[in-house]
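User: What would this chain look like folded?
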Amino acid sequence: MHLENPAIHPERTLLTIRGVTHSYREGDRLRPVLRGIDGEIGEGRFVALLGQSGSGKSTLLNLIAGLDMADSGSIIVQTFELNRLREPERTLFRRRHIGFVHQFFNLLPTLTVLENVALPGELNGFSADESRHRAVMLLDEVGLGDRHDSYPDSLSGGEQQRVALARALVHDPLLILADEPTGNLDSATGRHILDLLDHTVRRRGKTLLVATHSREVAERADAVWELCDGKLMF
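Assistant: Here's the prediction, encoded as structure tokens.
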């Protein structure tokens, strides 16, 4: 069941992609990956991005996050036109407005669970107390309220992904990007993470774009994009 947030307006566009191309250099040749991508996602929507390995799913997420720059075209998140931002500005944009859930968790091994989740808040200028308060609430919500002082290497894969989900939400970003969030988990654990991702993100009215091979993820989504031969199919 979808949780509706009356403050969210799906007809209000959050993400706009127009004519985006991107290639990678292999030796003295360019290998096109994205060949003119167009798409829009409304505020508070959950979109699944499907495609075979190598189709460009991760590339597109990285462009939207400002980790890389498109060769041509434009990507606009709310009022931020990424191709007009310099690298330091893109870094600040990503830190403040993007939450990222990675396939391999990307937790910092020397920090506790609580410290991992609180860190994005502190980087965004929240006080230590506010960051900790947000982290505690989110860890309770994902069922890890008793693991604050644990370190990532003592957690299962599913538990680490729950920490990563809490970390992606703690700074209240505009957009959540998830790259194969269940791809490194067994099917039962992956289904639980998907339940949490769907529920937790929708409860906050956040916009979510998930790159995945999973048709189960696609069945949960409000819309499905599929990358094929560098083009986006709907």
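The longest strand covers residues 13-26. If you want, I can go into more detail on any region.
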